[in-house]
Structure formats: structure tokens, C-alpha cells
Amino acid sequence: MIEVDERPSDTGEAAAPREDTTPRWRRRPPLLPTLVAVVAVLAVLTGVLAVAAASADRRADDEAQVLAMARQTALNLTSTDPANANAGFAHLQEAATGRFAADLSAQAESFVRVIQSAGVNSTGTVSEAGIQRLDGDHAEVVVVVDATVKNIRTPDGEPRQWRMHMDLQRQSDAQWLVSGLDFVA
Predict the structure, then answer these.
(1) pLDDT confidence of residue 3
(2) CA 1/CA 20 separation, integer angstroms
(3) Which of 46, 120, 130, 139 could bridge to 168 as Cys pair (CB 3.0-4.6 Å)?
(4) How many helices and strands (H and E) does the chain possess?
(5) Is residue 3 situated within a structural domain?
């Protein structure tokens, strides 16, 4: 940095510029603008991290709710007994919407009648469940259920395994319901 001595010289000529002898590394940038810039950058980074953390928490909550609903629906479908067939079917209907709700309504009488007349007693356990896709208000889940099925013809029970593909839809009250269910090989 060059400084100019503005005092007149004894000869009446303008003073010659004088060079600053302070080493370059010792010169400080203006403190206030630097602090303002640092605070602004930190505020922006804090905001970005807060939004990212909230989004991750929301996604984790959605994943947990989707898996819980899919698991419970699979259990409700594979855990039956003749004495509680109507109640079991009612639980299935509570978790249903869309195509799945329509399919259940169409099969309501036959579902309960078959369980009661054949003496179907089944206890299912979910061995695996995973989310294939979760986008906004729609999810796809695959659930694997192991069950022991007893009925009039097999009173000792027979082990079974089912794989179900479920479509789930978030409702306006933020609850996830099953909108489609297919058994897959």
C-alpha cells in the first residue's frame, strides 16, 4: 500500500509517495465486513442442515409407519380363527383403501364363510418386510409371512409361506392404508 504525505515540502513541490513498510501478512482485512460474511455463511449452512435433518426425520417416520401398516395387514390376513373371523375381517377393512378395499368388500361373505366352515386356524409371523419404493404419498412394500395353517383336513397344521406385494397410500389424516395387495411367487 502506498501512502502519500500531503504536507507541503520545504521546496514547494508536492511530496513524493511513501511506501507502507508493514509486511503484507500483517495487514488485516476490515473486521466488521469479515465477521458479517462469516455469520451469513454460518446461518445459511445451519438452515440447510436443519432442512436436511427434518427431511431425513420425516422420511424415517414414513418408513416406520409404512412398514408397520404392511406388517400388521399381513398378520391380519394370515392369522385367522373361526371364532373371530368377522373381527379379523373388520381389521383388514380398517387398513384398506382403493382397490384393496373394493376387493375385500366383494369377498366379505365368502372370506368369513370359508374360514368358519373349513375351521381354518392360522397363525402368521412376518419373517421379512422391505420397502421397494417410497415417494411422497405412495409406497410399495414386499412382506414375507410364515404361517401354520390348520383346518378340518389338516388338524396338525401345515407350514406355509406367502410373499405379498402391497401398495400403500397416505391418507389426508397422514395415516397409511393398503390400496393394493397381491400374492407373488
Answers:
(1) 57
(2) 5
(3) 139
(4) 3, 6
(5) no
Question: Cell numbers of 88, please?
Answer: 379379523
- One-letter amino acid at 105 equals S
Question: What's the grid cell of residue 2?
Answer: 502506498
Q: Note whether residue 44 is domain-resident.
A: yes
Burial class (CB in 10 A: 0-12, 13-18, 19+), 181: buried
138-150 and 176-184 beta bridge pairing: unpaired
149 vs 5 pLDDT, higher one = 149
Tens digits of residue pLDDT in 40-61: 888 888 888 888 777 777 888 9
Q: What is the pTM for the complete model shown?
A: 0.71
Q: Which amino acid is at 146?
A: D
pLDDT tens digits, 125-135: 999 999 999 99
Alpha helices in 13-148 (DSSP H): 31-78, 85-94, 98-117
The sheet carrying 138-150 orders its strands as 121-135, 138-150, 158-170, 176-184
> Distance between CA atoms of 103 and 164, rounded to whole angstroms?
15
Report the alpha-carbon distance of residue 44 to residue 31 in Å, rounded. Answer: 20
